[in-house]
Amino acid sequence: MKKLLALLLALVMVFALAACGEEPSEESAAPESGAPESSAPESEAPEAESDLAYVQDKGTLIVGITNFDPMDYQDENGEWIGFDADMAKAFAESLGVEVQFQEIEWDSKIMELDGKTIDVVWNGMTLTDEVLEAMECSNAYCNNAQVVILPADVADQYPDAESMADLQFAVESGSAGEDMAIENGFAYTPVVDQATAVLEVSSGTCDAAIIDSLMAAAMVGEGTNYADLTYTISLNSEEYGVGFRKGSDLAAELNAFFVEAYADGTMQEIADTYGVTAALIPQE
Asked: How many alpha carbons lie under 13 Å from residue 105 in its C-beta half-sphere?
């Protein structure tokens, strides 16, 4: 009897020890030493906001411009026309949205873009280092230069930049023309736009102006409202591009549109209308 009791007690102890040594279930197991604790999977980083979707959702493409013949200017009915204006209309149509033109102060263009009061700067904009750093830009589409505007009757007295050292210039504030005035050490008066710069010369309040060659060809000389003015030397050479908010997917969309519009002749047809065909850069 004692032997039987001893045997039963031994069996009970074996089962007890086995129960104490049982491994925890997978759900309750502690992590191995040195292993990181498990955590819920991290959510994916949100995608950057699409400017294309933003513009299409609101149904309008707001284009920042200044009065700049032959790129953006108003006809007798107050409608904005010009090479850039007509191209902007065609691009907006390709996106399925309406176009809206908004005049801006040129030196505030980056702030206007970032503040979303406009969606694009499309106004014969020179692709400067500052512009390329601050905006998402399209491919270049037009060649240009900064030229000097002078009264025709004194133009031959100023054959080069050195001879103009004592002149007072009018330039659009924040423009490539202002950059050229600074680079050449000219004294200058900043004004609201290039049209005003030309007016300053015509009225005699400034001796000369620096404006875009495309505008000069359309605005001064025989057959224009400023027949007594002329444009003379080029101070540089440059290219035009269109600017969007930094990182905007609209820039790639516009580049694709440029290629299509150049291939089917739309871009050349609009350029012919406004006399800028010779300045066009092929789009491929």
From this structure: 8
Structure tokens at 70: 């032959």
Contacts of residue 99, defined as CB under 8 A and 6 or more positions apart, other chains included, come to 60, 61, 63, 88, 89, 92, 93
Q: What is the pLDDT of residue 49?
A: 83
In the chain, what are the domains? 51-143+239-279 (3.40.190.10), 146-234 (3.40.190.10)
3-state secondary structure of 21: coil
Task: Give the CA radius of gyration of the chain.
Answer: 34
Q: Which residues of the chain have pLDDT under 50?
A: 1-8, 11-12, 14-43, 45-46
CB within 8 A of 50, min separation 6: which ones?
249
The partner residues of 60 in beta bridges, in order of sequence, read 98
- Contacts of residue 109, defined as CB under 8 A and 6 or more positions apart, other chains included, come to 64, 121, 125, 174, 243
**Residue positions counted in the chain:** 284
Compute the distance between CA of residue 208 and CA of residue 99 in angstroms, rounded to an integer: 36
* Distance from C-alpha of 227 to C-alpha of 242, rounded to nearest angstrom: 31
User: Cα–Cα distance between 119 and 256 in angstroms, integer?
Assistant: 18
What is the spatial distance between Cα 13 and Cα 101, in angstroms, rounded to a whole number?
91
Distance of CA 136 to the CA centre of its chain: 5
Average confidence score pLDDT of the chain: 88
Query: What is the C-alpha separation between 108 and 101, in angstroms, rounded?
Result: 16
Quick: pLDDT tens for 132-163.
999 999 999 999 999 999 999 999 999 999 99
Tokens of 93: 């149509």
Q: Could you give the CA distance from residue 118 to residue 276 in angstroms, rounded to a whole number?
A: 26
